Amino acid sequence: MLSLKGEQIYLRALEPADLDFLYALENNPEIWEISGTTAPYSKHVLELYLENAHKDIYEVKQLRLCICNLKGVILGLIDLFDFDPKNLRVGMGIIVSSKVDRNKGVGAEAIEILTNYAFLVLGMRQVYVNVLEENAPSIHLFSKLGFEKVGIKKDWIYFNGAFKNEILFQKINS
């Protein structure tokens, strides 16, 4: 049986008690560029989101999980989106919220766990990620984990008055 637990982290479903963490993360302008957020979220809107977070990936085409250390502290979020069971592909996104927790293997372990879940449980043929061209740490991370750079989306993200390129990576389930 596949476990969503690794050496230093585990992945779990969102809970109503995660509201304050989600509120702080979603309203952090430093990540709006990668999340596509354009305005703050109210706690009410996030409460409604959490009330529906239990829905099946086949119904809502996405799955969002908390990345927790072994003591249960939330370190970030990882999600599958654009779930496409016909073409057997899904997108993945990740954020380790505190800079203190980055570059310690947390993200790599979460990505490996969720990629294995996508391949072994959901039967996906491929997982893809989108990374800003200037995000060298993420480019290094996904390359190290076997994701292959397959293209550049020119002027894909418009943020703070400038266009930025986004790199498309994919990992094929062989």
TrEMBL record:
Keyword annotations: Transferase
Transmembrane segments: none
Gene Ontology molecular function: any one: acyltransferase activity, transferring groups other than amino-acyl groups
SUPFAM superfamilies: Acyl-CoA N-acyltransferases (Nat)
Domain N-acetyltransferase: 9-170
Domain of life of the source: Bacteria
PROSITE patterns tied to this protein: GNAT
Cleavable signal peptide: none
Name by which UniProt lists this protein: Diamine N-acetyltransferase
